[in-house]
Amino acid sequence: MTKGIEIQTVHQNARDYIKKYRDIPKFLQFCKACPRYNRCWACPEHGFDTEQYIAAYSHVYIIGAKIPVPASLRQIDMSSEQIAQAAEGITKAARRILDPVLLSLEQHIPNSLACYGGTCQLCETCTRPEGKPCRFPEKRRPSLEAIGFDVAATTQDLLGIELLWCKDELPPYLTVISALFTRDAIFDLTF
């Protein structure tokens, strides 16, 4: 399901990106409507100040993955629940490839911080609802939306990709938007 993924990256000044695309109160309200709110260690409410979390970084590299949905799958008559499950399966398969690469970039680029493309997928069930600590705190990263960024505007404005939603059918493609914040500019971010 991950055949033909197109990757695009764009570099932005982090302060400019924060100023234009971040609205913590607005996107926190969206998070509060999600069933993962306060039930996943990578989702709000966070145990840290999200403004301070990225304040030290001067650059951000937005990484957009455009994942084609096979026409044969799109032609199957599915319920809205089946559509959502299929979309989740496709994005999870892509993230099994993308997330380790992001984490590797973070580990090999000094003074950098990765943000995954969506909610945490490290465990089948999160320990947060049980009041237990995260099993993988060294690998856990929040998404851009979990720290207040407008991913739809980011995708449209900076990557030129229209963010498509699953409504009555699977769209022609799905997107996963990740990021890497850095203190120093990287001249060639190949993903």
- Unreliable runs: none
Q: Let me know the number of strands.
A: 4
Strand content: 15-25%
Task: Please state the overall shape, judged from the principal axes of the Cα atoms.
Answer: globular
Please state the CA-atom Rg, rounded to the nearest Å: 16 Å
Q: What percent of residues adopt helix (DSSP H or I)?
A: 25-40%
Mean pLDDT: 92
**Number of alpha- plus pi-helical segments:** 6
Structural class: alpha+beta
Separation, N- and C-terminal Cα atoms: 19 Å
The helix/strand series, from N terminus to C terminus, equals: EHHHEHHEHE
**Strands side by side in the biggest sheet:** 1-2-4-3
Largest sheet: 4 strands, antiparallel
Task: Compile the SSE list and pairings.
Elements: E1 6-13, H1 14-21, H2 24-32, H3 50-55, E2 59-68, H4 71-74, H5 80-108, E3 112-115, H6 151-159, E4 173-182
Antiparallel strand pairs: 1-2, 2-4, 3-4
